[in-house]
Amino acid sequence: MFAFIIRRTIQAILVMLIISLIGFSIKHQFGDPVRDLLGVSVSEAEREALRKKLGLRDPFFTQYFRFLKNAVKGDLGFSFFYKKPALEVILKKTPATIELVFASSLIIILGSVPIGIFAAIRPQHWLTKVFMGLSLIGVSIPVFLTAIMLIYIFAVTLHWLPSYGRGDLLDLGFWQTGLLTLDGLSHLIMPATALSSIMLPLFIRLIRSEMMEVLQAEYIKFAWAKGLKRIRIWFVHAFKNTLLPVITVGGVQLGIMIAFTILTETVFQWPGLGFLFLEAVQRADTTLLVAYLIVVGAFFVITNTVVDIIYVFINPMVRITGKA
Amino acid sequence: MKEAWLQFKSSFFLYSFLRDPVAIVSFLIFLVLVILSFLAPAIAPHDPYDLAAIDIMDAELPPVWMAEGENRFLLGTDGQGRDLYSTILYGMRTSIIIGILAVLLQAFLGICIGLIAGYFGGLVDNFLMRLADIQLSFSTLLVAIIIGALFQTAFGVEKYEDFSLILLIIIIGIAEWPQYARTMRASVLAERKKEYVEAARVIGLKSGRIMWRHIFPNALSPILVISTVQVANAVMSEAALSFLGLGMPITKPSLGALINAGFEYFISGIWWITAFPGFVLVILIFVINLLGDWVRDVLNPKLYKH
Amino acid sequence: MRKWYIALFVAVVLTMASSHVFAAGKTLRVAFDADPVSLDPHEQLSGGMLQYSHWVFDPLVRWTQEMTFEPRLATKWEQIDANTMRFHLRKGVKFHSGNDFTAADVKWTLERLKKSPDFKGLFVPFTGAKVIDDHTVDLITEKPYGLVLNMATYLFPMDSKFYTGTDKNGQPKDRINKTAPTFAKLNESGTGRYVVAEREQGVKLVLEEFPGYWDAKAGNVSKIILTPIKEAATRVAALLAGDVDLIAPVPPKDHDRIRGTNDMKLVTWNGGRIITFQMNQHRVEAFKDARVRNAIVHAVNNEAIVKKIMKNFATPGAQQGPEGYMGYDPNLTPRYDLAKAKQLMKEAGYEKGFTISMMAPNNRYVNDEKIAQAVASMLAKINIKVNLKTLPKAQYWDEFDARAADMMMIGWHSDTEDSANFTEYLTMTPNKETGYGQYNSGNYSNPEVDKLVIASQSETNMEKRKGILQKVERLLYEDAAFVPLHWQHLSWAAKKNVMIEDVANSQNFPYFGSMMIN
Question: B residues 50-79 near A, CB within 8 Å?
């Protein structure tokens, strides 16, 4: 296990190196950061002077090695817009996104497991058909449209929920949380619902189809023949075996969800990573972008490592390294 | 050729299709939508992609049955004065092509990489999965920026419009293969230790054959579930990319672009620009899903067939 | 027992009374599309930063709604000689730090402005300031300069004592640096109505009343909570949901919705930002022909664009400066005439038309992308086929600087509130050394226009100057130097009791310090 973690850490560093190299080589495609820093009427000579001062005119590898040298010291560069270390800016925005993703994961799990199981054991029930139909509509409506619809109904028309932001936060020093205040929770409801609207249908369908397969397996037939209780067969024998593919897909989807936070956070003015990313693209804040990519890359390596470890526990047949 | 047809005619595939009314109806609807979209120039009352034919003074007219609606425009017009009915027909073609081809490309790449990673394991697996991690960090948007930039340096801005459809398929296809790869790999890891795979190996079957004919069908179910969701995502991704100047030209809106526009029109009450294309997209995704379910049932060796 | 009741009663009455007396001020919750990027008023020349400067600092003079000058920290001013303007400063004004405001602060601020990369361009005509006594200061220009008062609206005196010395990083406190942390970026001491109480960049800015503020006639807003909400639809929703009291800007298509909501109101104001397309003569041979340029101007129905896309939330234009500016000529009106446009194309020998590329931003100006599409469709009617590409502003400026398309969109607002500024940046012959024509992507060049504008800079006789600037507009009009579209309006939507209409202006600097909430 220890060797495994060491190996994965080395791989993570390699991944981040490659990401930074790609990120660095494309960063000028995002636009000229100097444009956003200076007013429109500033002369071209003044602009060029700032570019030189920021080191943007240095040769590619000079810039890249300077970046690497600092990165070793934990310094991923300076955000042009926030005028703070990029890593600090990112870490500051991380709690907002984690709480949002956590809340929507909760909605997804609490929604998809019961509905998925129900749909699998009662495929002909009218409720199943309603759920399946609704889930398809959920998939076909883009997240931002779901979001604005929610805002329109619950904030503008009914005045039940706040329309934007995170509300009152509790500062725990290293972490600003909205989960511990009533106001913070009420701000979380709509963004979390909107974010889960894409993934929830996916998981309902996934659990349903896996469960239906398992229900036809020999050992379930055998369990029926043994006269085991229905509840026990469904939830213990059958459901446990549907978990494996669900967790795999879940692990990947957690990553995909990061991409969807960009839209959700923008619509709800949620001060998280996705919002930060889109702003950085729009402002051509290239240092922040490269730092963001590296952090997200690290995040994916970590989640996938965790998924691989969970795997071993659920399915003893799989060896982590996959060596035969 | 004739032989192939005969083989197809007597196949289980066709047999189960003809026995399943839901599959037949879904397929027919799907076929109608495809035909309508490809015959759009012949069927549509207006040509919404001809800039000379649209007039800004017709903008935002409601559908014909509402007070200010005009007979010329059955479903009303969009913000530029394009006939919405015609635009939906034209735009659906872009959306269908991208939705299906991009997802096929994703699935093809993902399944191949996942199979190889899971089957061979070890270094190959590690390498491919870290590649997937890198890919995941570069979301569709970033892939679009990279490929768009590469293309522009190679061929110039002028050519972009002619190739935008192919480029979009490649962009969306490349950007999202990792989810297929990881799903496929997980299934392979679960299957490869099972007796039937061991048995196949013992009889000396080639790796490729074991992977495709034995492991792949057993892992099909989650792949199909993801795919149906991905079609919808691809359609919307295309629309989102045109914001960056990397999608289809904004003068040729797709279904996704029309729905996208709904965001800004939502509060002002101009619902038709989003609602009609949205409805068509829901129908499209719906029948693709039903067909996907049917394919899964037919090809899945774990389900008993009657 | 009874005593208790009485005590309680007294306490309640006292609290009510005290809350009445001491907390008369109201809280204003504002949502704009962006928040100020810094607390240093000299860091960036942008609308957002100037709005902030008007809340936390005070200028020497400021614009009124009628485009006249209102005394603020300067109470009077007089021309001493051709190159000198004397300002008499207000007495008894204190900075947030408690320091007294004096003439030395004005001199210090002007010197700092001349060091700021963003502002130095505007202050080039000034050689410096001379302190006469504590409350009198002379601003001296190199040549006679007609816009000294216009520039005095940019002079927000900073607390020179507060900003002198070194900070904890050993850097001078008055340092201006775009990308490194500086003292002035995080700390402020102005004379303005509000003190920065809390700030998280991109999330929230909280301003609280400065107890020692000099202006007794100030409004009754004692606290401002500014939240940036980028998405226009979310911003509108936040207002309709009652989560904020005032928003800006308001997308044109939601104007009716807000007008139709009971306790809401919409305030619009004519703005000075002109939106234009430029025709690149270096890229397209045909654009060298004034007939072709005129044909394009005649083919573009900018009145229809204003009506349908801008929902009348703009004024269709035919020149650069809007009404109220010195060079404005009321005789120059929009001239949509498709028949004439076709005729002109025929005369120029382009009856069959040609193909061009066009670029426009899609998140910079109000409805920029839609406007570009509409123009493309209008040009199609005179057989000019347009390949249109729209981009986010971050990428667009790169393309604009590279002059990457045959027709490019550019909007311009004059920093000096004066007509000459438009021509200097947009239509004078591009010249790297002088910086003229920096945004002239059309490469239009007319020596007569260049000569007139340079003459206008040192003309202090306002009647003569007006004549010169009007002539410039007329020349550009006849020559069809660019495709004029419209002047964007400004808009605010608010709850009925927020009297934004009293403090709105065409510069888009709402003076919240003077605003009332009823």
Answer: none
